[in-house]
Amino acid sequence: MSRWKTLLIVAAVVVAGLIGYRLLSPAGTAERRGPGADANRTIPVTVVPVAVEDVALHLDALGTVQALNTVTVRPQVSGQIDSINFKEGQEIKKDEVIAVIDPRTYKSQYDQAVAKKKQDEAQLGAARSTLKRYDELIQRNFVAGQDLENQRHTVAQLEATVVADAAAIDNARVQLGYTTIRAPIDGLAGIRQVDVGNLVQGGQANGIVVLTQVHPINVVFTLPEQNLEFVRTLDAEPLDVVALDRSDNHQVATGKLSVIDNQIDATTGTFKLKAEFANDDNALWPGQFVNIRLKVRTIANATVVPAQALQRGPEGTYVYVVKEDSTVAMQPVKSGADAGNGKILISEGLKVGERVVTEGQFSLKPGAKVLALAPGETPPAPAATAPASGDKPAEGTRRRRGGG
Known about the structure:
By secondary structure, the chain is α+β, with helices and mostly antiparallel strands. Helix content is 29%, strand content 37%. A hairpin with a 2-residue loop joins β17 and β18.
């Protein structure tokens, strides 16, 4: 047998094998059954009934946590730090001692002011006694009138000096008091910026520590200007505000709307709002970003469906509704605001009790027959399919051929 005949025989065997595999495979079986073989196939889908709930309408925004008050504690007098009386991160109450500056210089200045006042008071006493004697002697012409007038001016001058001495004492007392640095507010101490032994200057740029008041605490956020009138009309009583984490999955804190800014930002078309939170558990931290949900009103007896039931097409939004005969139909609907918990408000198109498809919509078309399943329910396993009539004889034939 020539080489070409051998190649032709091998090629014919390969083609015959491919044709046989195509006919015996499931795809080939489907082709033999024809295009309408799966027309009546039942499609498993997840179905949820349309419900009625009281829906709270919210406005969502991204907010930044801000301390109610922030104070950089700076020394008001110069000197050497004698002691630091707080720990970093400590809760500090108002008027608690934060640090002490060496007070000896200011104590001596205070003592000098006190001594100077006593000296001037003694001189004033002597001048007043002299003036009294001059008043008695002027009546007997023992003292010139000019001397009496000069003594009166001396007394007045010394009285003014004593008043100035009292003011100097007060000033020295204040300067001495500044050597004991106290907390001006209740707050949380930050990182210490000076150490014991450092020399500090009054009013220096770097403070000793920064105190932030976090009980209560504020969150600042913005809303589009079209919401301004809506929010202002509801400002008769403080609106409820919820702070959520960045993933919108966890409620961090609840508070009240406290301030609506008095102007709109012309560059962004937004306006600022401020909400106040008690923050007793320190869940909010200055500088933190949180998602804000501002509750504006509640709609009673609203029609809601799971958000995943809503589909969008060229003609708008729709859902698949399961009818009594277990077929589906496309139902156009008008959707509203987010109802929370993965649900959405339906303002038109559905009735309470109707069943809508929430999973499996991509395999559906109007009129398709479905198997309605509850959420989390799995479809039953398909029954084993009996082999085709020609399959077993063919297998037996192959066995016989192998045996023969």
